[in-house]
Write a structure and sequence with these properties.
The complex is a heterodimer of chains A (about 425) and B (about 180). With about 425 residues, chain A is mainly α. Chain A has 22 helices and no strands. The chains are: A mainly alpha (about 425), B mainly alpha (about 180).
């Protein structure tokens, strides 16, 4: 059978299986078992079992439960609320201060949490009701929260980075650090966009007054004091990697210990809370590891049939403009992310794209950072996006159509930052070059 | 006879739930082991200049065992990630049929993988296959057996979901009639 038929047929079948609502790991398994039967026969069944074993014992993936656990400990201990109230005291009298607060908190949450869903769910329950109660524009509030939550997978720690770097054989440490500057650029653009919108249309943000926005210098000092312990976690995750003291997985474990320490300092630690956090993290870990383990054979099957190598040859021979190809890859990911889960897309495309990226000579950190931003964006591009669904879970009264409408301007800002990173690769590669 | 059979099935289902819940508790222990191992490794290496020889291996085993110990509980709670926006657009009847098919495919896929994994477990045990580790090679079946457990127990949950869905559909049909 021609390689292109195998490739297109395999991908089409897999995407169709996803869209029927099959759990993603079941879709992968069904296609893999069928593929092995057709290509190798029953002798190949041992390969499937071995592939699951090999994938689920990759040490690098242990950072996934650790990053999830870190966020869970902070969230369940109530330490996050303390951060919220402290940051609220530090932001002065500015028009649209709740939007500004949202973006500033998002940057900090981004450095404390590895998943956009967690931040989105948290802010939809805490920040969003306050914004609506103070007559802030509903659509802009939703957009700011969703865009802010999407910084979490870009600014380290990041579950998506662990998956991308491990699948792409890229340096986990470098890819984690590479997200810092693009994440900050995004936050800055969000702020500029919000300020411009609020200046042009004053009805989007009422002028706030009252005790909530008047903080004395003493209160501001206390707020800074409350926020300082959180720097322990940021140091554990980012600092230990930058200083070369710990590997990303070790820094993730240190981050968990840091989160426990912060909740102890804030007098909010309890073993019951920790066991609950462990349960939640174990649940999410199982969801992710089972998908990754089930999917690995798909890439191996494509390689066995020669489809992957022939795709690379075909692409390299036919490409005179590597950047057109780059644009095409990113466009395909953008469109697929509108309909399919981000992890599933990474599991399908990274093994296919990796040899193409190597052959074209792109800087891997630069390319995978672009991919990271693109895939993260998939969480807020309608109609399918977990970041949006997590928001809806926390604010069920908001119609999904309104959430969809709120995200598009921020999607545009994400695309703009991708373009900036494309034009100025140093935004992604400068910090990793120190490692 | 039917009542006795139903009582037996209910008891088996309860036992299955209890085993899955116990496995989930153990998966939390595995996660705690990962946190402890890596934290201890960082401290031992940088404060005492004595890296822990076992940390990486213990973490890789704990990750695999923990993920598959928790898998049945995830299946029980319908927690697996799926793209559901198209099925949600369907009306009740075709959606019920589609969900039944999904549970059936889930059962078949998990049962098939459990069988393949069990075959490998037996071969590994008979041939005494050991994991090539930096320090202490251990029999591979000690770790891989948990993959079989995870898929087998999940297959049973998919079967139970299918049976429950079929009962609901039958009940709705009988009310309509």
């Amino acid at each position: 059978m021609d390689w292109s038929v195998i490739l297109v047929g395999g991908l089409a079948l897999l995407l169709a299986a996803f869209l029927t609502g099959l759990p993603i790991f079941v879709a992968f398994l069904a296609i893999n078992v069928t593929g092995v039967l057709l290509i190798i026969g029953t002798r190949g069944f041992g390969l499937i079992a071995n592939s699951i074993f090999e994938t689920s014992t990759v040490v690098a993936f242990s950072a996934i439960p650790l990053f999830v656990l870190m966020g869970e400990v902070l969230n369940r201990s109530g330490s996050v609320e303390l951060l919220f109230s402290s940051m609220d005291k530090l932001i002065g009298r500015v028009r649209g201060r709740q939007y500004v607060l949202t973006v500033c908190l998002s940057v900090i949450f981004g450095a404390l949490s590895g998943a956009a869903m967690a931040v989105s769910a948290m802010m939809s329950r805490s920040l969003y009701p306050t914004m609506i109660a103070r007559n802030y524009d509903r659509r802009l509030s939703i957009g700011a929260i969703l865009a802010g939550a999407s910084l979490a997978p870009i600014i380290p720690p990041s579950v998506l980075v662990i998956i991308i770097a491990t699948l792409a054989d890229a340096s986990v440490a470098k890819l984690l650090i590479a997200g810092i500057l693009p994440g900050l650029c995004l936050a800055l653009l969000f702020l500029i966009y919000i300020v411009v919108r609020v200046t042009l249309d004053r009805s989007l943000a009422p002028q706030e007054s009252g005790a909530s926005i008047k903080s004395s210098t003493y209160e501001k000092f206390v707020a800074v004091g409350h926020m300082l312990p959180f720097s322990i976690i940021i140091f554990c995750v980012v600092g230990l990697i930058l200083l070369g003291i710990a590997t990303p997985t070790e820094s993730a474990a240190s981050g968990v210990v840091g989160a426990m320490l912060v909740s102890v300092i804030n007098r909010r630690f309890s073993w019951t809370m920790f066991v609950e956090a462990l349960g939640s993290a174990a649940f999410v870990t199982s969801m992710i590891i089972v998908i990754i383990a089930s999917s690995n054979m798909f890439g191996q099957l494509l390689a066995m049939t020669g489809a992957t190598s022939k795709l690379v040859t075909y692409v390299i021979d036919g490409t005179t403009q590597p950047y057109v190809l780059l644009f095409l890859i990113l466009a395909i990911v953008f469109v697929l992310c509108m309909f399919i889960d981000q992890t599933a897309i990474l599991l399908i495309l990274v093994p296919l794209v990796k040899p193409v990226v190597t052959a074209l000579g792109f800087d891997p950190i630069w390319f995978w950072t672009l991919m990271l931003i693109n895939v993260t964006l998939g969480g807020i591009t309608p109609p399918f996006g977990y970041t949006m669904f997590a928001f809806k879970g926390g604010a069920p009264e908001v119609p999904l159509s309104e959430i969809y409408g709120a995200t598009w301007p921020f999607v545009g800002l994400f695309v703009l930052v991708m373009f900036l990173v494309f034009l100025v690769p140093g935004i992604a590669t400068f910090l990793p070059s120190w490692l | 006879m039917t009542m006795g059979c139903n009582a037996l099935l209910a008891a088996l289902a309860r036992a299955h739930d209890e085993v899955a819940a116990f496995g989930f508790h153990l998966s939390k222990v595995c996660l705690a082991v990962i946190v402890f191992s890596f934290s201890a490794e960082v401290v031992a290496r940088y404060f005492f200049n004595a890296p822990l020889w076992w940390a990486n291996e213990v973490v890789s085993y704990a990750l695999c065992i923990g993920a598959f110990l928790a898998m049945p509980e995830v299946t029980r709670q319908h927690g697996h990630i799926a793209v559901t926006f198209l099925p949600e657009m369907l009306s009740a009847r075709p959606r019920a049929v589609l969900e039944s098919i999904i549970h059936l495919v889930g059962f078949l896929a998990c049962a098939a993988i459990a069988w393949m994994s069990l075959t490998q477990n037996i071969a590994q045990y008979v041939r005494d296959v050991r994991i090539i580790a930096a320090v202490e090679p251990i029999p591979q079946v000690y770790i891989s057996a948990w993959i079989t457990y995870g898929f087998l127990s999940s297959a049973l949950y998919f079967l139970r979901h299918l049976s429950r869905r079929a009962q609901q559909v039958t009940a709705v049909e009988s009310i309509r009639m």
